[in-house]
Amino acid sequence: MLKESHVDVLIIGAGPSGLMCANALAGAGVDFRIIDNRPVGVAAGQADGIQPRTIEVLQSYGLAEPLLKEGAQMHLCAFYNPGPDGGIERTGRAADVTAPTARYPFKITIAQASIEALFVESLKSQGISIDRPIAPSSLEISQDPAELLDPTSYPVKVVLDHIHSSDDTPEQEIVHAKFVVGADGAHSWVRKTLGFTMDGEQTDYIWGVIDFIPDTNFPDIRNRSAIHSENGSCMIIPREGDKVRFYLQMADKDVMDPETGKIDKQKVTAENLINTARRTFYPYIVNEPKEVDWCSIYIIGQRVASKFSKHDRVFIAGDACHTHSPKAGQGMNASMNDTHNLAWKLAQVLRGRADISLLKTYELERQKYAQDLINFDREFSALFSGKPRTLENQEGVTHEEFLRAFQASGGFSSGIGVHYMPSAIVHTIHQGSASNLIIGERMLPQLFVRAADARPVEIQDMLPADTRFKLLFFVGLLTSEQLTKVRRLAEELELPTSFLQKYNFPAQGKAQSMFDIISIAAGHKDDVNFLDIPSTLRTHWSKVLIDDTDVTGRLGGGAYPRFGIDEKEITIVVVRPDGYVGMIAPSTALESMDKYFGSFLIGKTLNREA
Prior knowledge:
Elements: E1 3-12, H1 16-27, E2 32-35, E3 49-50, H2 52-60, H3 64-70, E4 72-74, E5 76-82, E6 88-95, E7 107-109, H4 112-124, E8 134-141, H5 145-149, E9 156-162, E10 171-182, H6 189-194, E11 198-213, E12 224-229, E13 232-238, E14 244-249, H7 252-255, H8 270-281, E15 291-305, E16 309-310, E17 314-316, E18 322-323, H9 331-350, H10 360-385, H11 399-408, H12 410-413, E19 447-450, E20 456-458, E21 469-477, H13 480-494, H14 499-503, E22 515-522, E23 544-546, H15 559-563, E24 571-575, E25 581-586, H16 590-598
Helix pairs in contact: 1-4, 1-9, 9-10
């Protein structure tokens, strides 16, 4: 008799995407299980770059601190091109992160194993571990439409094989799941089982990658460096400690088997890669490395899955649904942000607070992002892998062209410029009420001062990824006339017909309440009494802020004009649980708020449990 079990969410794959999903669901109190077919996690190599937006996201889960402490930080990028003497010369330097609103204006590099360890430790502290080595061997989804639309049903049946030694017949078990997340990598079993295709193309560019401790006189070895030479291109990524990663463009003759026309893995040695580096770096010297950690080779492929979900019951995320070159440092970032987008939606549907249709927004938002990523990567890779312009090769890539593309893509490559299109959860009708807080983009970082104790606080730190919608009430300059308007608004919000009463489920166990309210006044800290704010808009003394500088006069202030908000009005900004602005409305348009939340949430009166 096979062992059978039921679970709300089964996560297949414990790489960055699967672990992000597990950590988010654990925090939300969701019943889930995470499995992986490898006996242990990655030891060396793989992804290593954390982009500014991903640092913000990890911070929203309370996980950024160790990365900021232990990782290398890339603040500068140096550019090298062919010089007159046949070698390379530096043609410029620029800020590595060009997005002006980045809270963290740098990238972090650290081994993928360290990032995975962060999540594993976080899960362990909550009594959760990864089941491994376990591989799925079959997956069936019910075809009954009523069952598929019922979030309390278990329409997905997965057979799991417990892998022992190679001789043993695996021990099998059956898992009945409400939802399945396939985060099982570029060769995803889940994707293939669902019959989804990977659409795109393979390029002819062959690249080697090596992690090592270098011995060199190259002056920018601790900066990100983009090198275009007559002998191919190289990207330098400084790593934690004394380590460095080189991405090296390889010539066919160095890595191909002339008879089969395929890559000969025997030729992919650290020695071979270092010899390629020496030719690229001339006149700089690259000596024998002090220590080699890992090396590998890949051909750049740029593909996106045809679908990201089946019946909104089985989802794929991470490398399972998009592959691209690693040099722009997007892979692990895109992967973690996929499940950051999905997890809160699963939690709200499983709690019976959101309609199952909310899950359609996962594919809508992340597939478009993945396609944009591939288009960006295609352009960036072609520029990077292309021959540089020289006297003999006038068709080549100029330094100016590369720099222009590098800077123009800064918003996208940093993750800061991710923009979700209008949908049930992105409603742009009142964009004019806060013209510079773009609906569909992440909430901008900004320092405010707490009204009760004048302590400066970063608004992003008040928006943890805890499945709650954050309602930011910009209550304006609190004149007596304005306070009358604020009190009237609070009374309206207390009516049983208001969106706040209809949809604000209270906290139950590990399930958080639906809303968290923060009030932000304009004016001077000496003039604002936080107790003047009605209790509906003042849920805790720490949740009333002022748009003013701190006591030193150096931190904070200027948010109202920066966001494009009128301090004579009351403006409501809805920040989704994943940190993106979903809706903005003036206080006179509460019916718009009701319509917004009513399009995907289940009102308390309609809720089966109520």
